[in-house]
Design the sequence.
């Protein structure tokens, strides 16, 4: 039985990555001129936020699948 417990909350690089991705998801730093260029019918800032939302989902999924190993998983497997 492997008793190694991995808690991602204790890894600073995860929080730094999460902060950067969430910061990229906030539209406050776009200028008024960013409304006009359209990509596939969506304003540039909207497309940019959509891309960062997908990156955020992928990052959180990767963290949950690869960086998180808790004791409850092993307990459930033993039942």
Sequence:
């Amino acid at each position: 039985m492997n008793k190694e417990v991995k808690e991602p909350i204790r890894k600073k690089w995860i929080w730094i990555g999460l902060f950067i991705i969430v910061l990229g998801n906030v539209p406050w730093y776009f200028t008024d001129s960013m409304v006009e260029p359209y990509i596939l019918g969506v304003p540039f800032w909207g497309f940019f936020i959509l891309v960062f939302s997908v990156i955020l989902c992928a990052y959180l999924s990767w963290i949950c699948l690869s960086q998180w190993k808790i004791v409850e998983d092993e307990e459930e497997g033993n039942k």
Summary: The chain has a mean pLDDT of 80.
